[in-house]
């Protein structure tokens, strides 16, 4: 017996137990409402999606072609439309996630208005967006199932048993739109206690995977900006512990922690690490400090700081800001140490923020990490901050030059020009971009590929195109030709915007609650019937 029939049977027995007082309750209607709301709480979602993600991680370990992907979404509606589109085009949501970007929350969801990605926005906005995204995904479930229930009723009314059986099978095998969210907690918005408290709220809202970075909370910068300041390993590991405790307290025993290192682009630290013995983590962190070795107290000026490192007295270079500087060229070594240390102390996945999308660069670091932790896997930001076209055209240019191929027709500095779009070099670069995710998953240990800000950019681009046409000579045709006609022909469900907003769900409920007395919105005079 299907879950649907089980629910009807259970509710029928329950109604019988209540006698005449529940005579107006239709068990099948109640069963439908239960199926349309599979997840009662955010914790139910977190537990369900954590298991999904763990299974996907195991599948990737067995076969690197089974990598996962996500797009960053800044509103519940955007996330909902993404999952509806994925189900329409691919028939399944398998290995497709959502990413919650701290950058987009700062830019689009703060009560202060648009802010830079420096952890100045309200931290409550993070769990609020997680909850909003899952509210919209659950509504997508309710909407699609509601349509199937109406199809089932129509088939039964027409006596079409074959059609009814086919629809019933779709109901019984329904795949939810609810998928894992990898959620950005930035640097924890404070100390380890603050990190724990925010992590709890995020998990309670439904997050099964929390990404945390090793920057200083009050100096936090976007990973693609300058001025990043890292913290000693002990500070970062305390926050990883805080997130794990939050997962365990709430019963999400298999929650995922993504440890991000910004050390490749971060040349500064606010603290000299505490060290107890030569070669411990603190000592290793301090060994990367830039400075001068001294031999006597005469080399120390007023206010100078001196630390014993590598068996010698080191006077670290201190900036006017009070920050200390790392040695030039130490970034890769610091990244590798950060990653190994994080995995050895409770993190599940890594995030290495790079300055360009170069598989060879990522692979070099991952290979070194895997020498110590063989199963190391990455979440990688396929960032819109990269100029993908120019980067890959230059990579092809450099590869061809190294191979002795004639490159006299190309100017490396001008490869972004549209003049090169139809050239062999541009076509090769585009092919490398197309296969980047599969190639990097295979060669560089990338389990999850995401784009942080795609829907930020697509919203701006589509609005620009609409504004240009609608307020220009095209007038109303700018909307009809550029939007509505495409929606209809591409089968975009949102063309029936009343249905998408829940009007049909509301009509169903009114009929459940009021029977024939229900005043429904979806009657013959609803203009949505034109579509």
Automatic annotation (TrEMBL):
GO MF annotation: an example: isocitrate lyase activity
Keyword Membrane included in the entry's annotation: no
InterPro entries xrefs: ICL/PEPM, Isocitrate_lyase, Pyrv/PenolPyrv_kinase-like_dom, Pyrv_kinase-like_dom_sf
A biological process term (GO) from this entry: carboxylic acid metabolic process
Cofactor: Mg(2+)
Active site: 222 (proton acceptor)
Manner of cofactor binding, per the entry note: Can also use Mn(2+) ion.
Name of one Pfam family that matches: ICL
Keyword annotations from UniProtKB, A to Z: Lyase, Magnesium, Metal-binding
Binding annotation for Mg(2+): 184
Highest taxon of the lineage: Bacteria
SUPFAM superfamilies the record matches: Phosphoenolpyruvate/pyruvate domain (SSF51621)
Coiled-coil features, chain-numbered ranges: none
Catalysis: reaction(s): D-threo-isocitrate = glyoxylate + succinate
NCBIfam families xrefs: PRK06498.1
PANTHER family found in the cross-reference section: BIFUNCTIONAL GLYOXYLATE CYCLE PROTEIN, ISOCITRATE LYASE/MALATE SYNTHASE
Protein name: Isocitrate lyase
Species per Swiss-Prot/TrEMBL record: Rheinheimera nanhaiensis E407-8
